[in-house]
Input
Amino acid sequence: MAKDSGEQKPGGWMAPGSAMRAKLHAWWEGYDYAEKSKPDAGAPPTQLAAAEPPPAIPEPIHPDPIRLPMDGKVIVKDAWPPERMKVAQMVWGDGFTFPGGERLALELGREMGLPTGAVAMDLGCGLGGGTRAMARELELWMEGYDLSIDLARAGDGSSRAANMERKAPIGLLDVVDGSFKPKRYDGAVVRNVFSLVSEKPKLLTRIRHGMKPGGRLVIADWAISHDDAMGPDLEAYRLGEATAPRLSTIERFVAQLAEAGFEVQAKSDITDAFRAAVLEGWARIDGIVARGQLVPAEGQALVDEAQLWSRRIAALAGGELRFAKLVAARPSE
Output
């Protein structure tokens, strides 16, 4: 005969043994372990009163809600019809029109070092996939802006569809006449914006004006390796862009940040990691084509996008085009 373990099925008594096992059994049966003693044979365990449900957690309230602009002066010439948006997301991920996807967005977002509930801006947000990821995963109030009115409208629509119109609204970034509310933002991420802006110091001053003292500015953007860079691959890249790039070296941009009143904390050339992200995205192209789900206009958009990124990759491989990350802060007052 098997030795009696001293245990019975749920509903009976559990003999003394592991305190943890006893506590788990008490939890299962619904009695207080601290007050439990061996009952008389057949006596049911003492039941606790039904626990009250935990109080509902109130929905967080935005500290200073505003409506983001959806009009202003547009400086980019890049057209983003629905077909291009669709194929770009098939390559880079849902809500993304640029390499790196959610992984890069969250990496940049974490560099801001913000606490839960902080308010931050995401300039150059595209369709807002990264903006929504930062709002969701980092528990921030994000506000995304893009240079393209097409992407801004579509991105804001996506935020509304995801019930994130308050956590991650999207608007148009007007770098000519636009401005930000003074000391509104605890931090800022800027992606692929400064390489398209001729008056970088002016935009930097506006961003600084909109940030709180001590807030971090995190930038990821194109750069050139040296001031007189003009090789054939870089020239083909420049001519192939719908909006003429306004590139500078990392060192020159660091100087412009300092002139605008920021303290530069870190600078790095992340070209290798960025190039790997590009190739990772384009590795999906065979599957996209094999599925045969593209209408002719979408197929042409995929070809155009492939040619665009082919020129960019060649310029990166040539060494004169780089991709950089910089971290700066508005000094505390």
In short: The beta strands are 119-123, 141-146, 170-172, 185-191, 211-224, 263-269, 321-329. The chain has two domains: 19-49, 82-329. The two ends are 80 Å apart (CA to CA).
